Sequence to fold (272 residues):
Amino acid sequence: MYSSNADLSTIFNRILDTAANNLRIANILVQMGLDPNNVTYDALFNRLLEIVLANITLANMFALIGAVFFVATLLMQTMVPLRVANMAGCSFFAAFGALSGNITTFLLYLLMLPINAVRLRQMLKLVEKARHATQGDMSMEWLKPFMKERRYRRGDTLFKKGDAATEMFLTVTGKFLVKEINVELPPGRLMGEFGFLTPNNRRTGTVECIENGQVLSITYERLLEIYFQNPQFGYYFLMLTSQRLLENISRLEGVVAQQRTALQAAGVGNVA
Fold:
């Protein structure tokens, strides 16, 4: 064990001797208070230890802890812990600036604190709203300010199956019929949202007005803008479309069950 340490020390001493022949490294060693012509591993280690101990101050400790938090932000994969770590780092760097008398550093990180606090609060509110979106009311009332009013009369066709889809509708008054599945849409229901999700943006059904009514429309381009500005919308929209799909599946299961019952009854009648 002792021999191994001795060999390692000898290797380091040879590396230092070679490095000392470089003028730049020699100048650094002189600035550190070492003799380039007689530098050893032990002398270098002891000198570095002296420098570290001489610079251990409360201000530098705050700076070191702040640096640790800032490095931690690079490892964060989600925004909430990233903001928290960033705020902690800003706090320690602001303290470093105050204790070291560096007013620029102090003001810089002091100003970054409220910015991160506001962004963290917005993110927490977004998470809370997203949680409510997956558990609570599926209303789209908040989307109305972004929509345009449009009126239809009985017999009007809003769109046909296979048409190019460019907008979504929200029924306000009147009644509308999805002809392929013979389902009436009362006020407060979305129409045309599936076209936003299909790869080729085509209508998946035909909708006809069966009672004079009013709808609100919004283009898919506007929907994309709202989504990128407010990702919370994605949760709402996902839950709404999932709800519609589940309703359609339940309706189809009911139709299949009725047909099966009718077939069974017809079979029994034939046997009788």
Remarks:
- The chain has nine helices and eight strands.
